[in-house]
Amino acid sequence: MNLLEILIAVPAAGFLVALMIPRSQELAVRLFTLAVSLLAFILSLGLVAGYQSGQIGQQYVDNVVWIANPNIHWHVGIDGLSLWLIVLSTFLTPIAILISWRSITKQIKEFFAFLLLLEFGLIGVFAAWDLFLFYTFWEVVLVPMYFLIGIWGHDRRIYASVKFFLYTMAGSVLMLVAIIYLYNVAGTFDYAVILESFQSGRIGLSHTEETLLFLAFFVAFAIKVPLFPLHTWLPDAHVEAPTAGSLMLASVMLKMGTYGMLRFCVPLFPLAARENAGWINILAIIGIIYGALVAMVQPNLKKLVAYSSVSHLGFVVLGIFSFTQMGLDGAVYQMLNHGISTGALFILVGFMYERRHSLAIKDFGGVATVAPWLGTVFLITTLASIGLPMLNNFVGEFLVLQGAAQANFGWTAFAAIGVILSACYMLWMYKRVFFGAPGDEVKHHMPDFNFREWVCITPLIVMMVWMGLFTKTFLPVVSETNAQILDHTGATVALSTAPGALPRTGGAFHAR
Question: Structural domain tally of the chain?
């Protein structure tokens, strides 16, 4: 058992042990789950320390037969694409536990145990290299989030949880059909074997087969992103979810969709991916602008942040289907950036809800007067979210836009509108919530940060600055993996200003 397998096993074992703790031992449950999540985070840092930059392919690999017939393997490993997403999952789980320390007052044991089960599923999704194993972890993630929303959510929690479940399951069924079809073609679920077989020409797909399989995978991942117009489940899920649920949903679970596009859709079905890139990028740009415009008119803080996610993740999809090195690097970096900055926004909104018991923007005003540190931290997070230079989102958005410009300058021109609009809705929201004269309710129910809240939010603020200034901490290993993915696609991209131009084919991308 290598370090990666230990990391996968720790939250799973923690989930089972947490369920055995007597229900009356509430503090013991909290402390135990926090200790398990911190151990998982330390182990993930061990993955980073032992990761060999420059080594092509998977690391920390274990590949053994799980089920002989059909041919299913326990095949796990990581590369530059999955490494930082696993670290992001383990980094945010103890924060999710801490922000729920006092706000969760019913069925405490189950709530904190479900957070560990969610962490187990997320790590597994990013580590799995067998398609059946990947699908298993994909479905595991669905279960705890369904209950986190449905049991510990707000007034319309049942509606939101069922809608979330149905949307995700619809996509999952399509993906399962595609996985079974691939097994019948290749005789294995092993992703690396299937990919090598396609590239070597030992097995092949007709144009129709490749297109249909690409679309089946793509729709499943597009629902999870969510890409416009498949996004309607997201605002309801965020508004009704507890703060920890919103944090893990926005920061990590949505990245399962973009990760799937980059891991499976693009390398396995390169021709179909290139042929469909045009309309996919149009949907991404519509999502960028639409999400920003809808966020601008939201009266609810959580819905505003939720629609900002639709906008920001449109940049990720645009970067992936630009088929450029900078576009892919920016897409992966923006996944991480969004996990930090939008996660921080949901945490801060949750802190404000615990004080004011309202998410309506009109119920605030003048918060900075009575809680100056809350106002300061919220401002830093707002500036990071809109892409201020020297903070994290700027790097990801710049790389995506630059990469998209190499493929089609028209895409960049329209996508850049979203950057302007994000500044409009975020700064307008900040003005209404934090400036002005505070009302009586704000004066009496809006204390500043306590120690536990500082512990929760400080690591995220540090990461916003670190990722904005020291990108070489993260980007080299990401770039190595993205270069391999581009090589698998055989895509080359020439600078074009024609609105309808698509990436050309033939050879790996080289910057001009």
Answer: 1
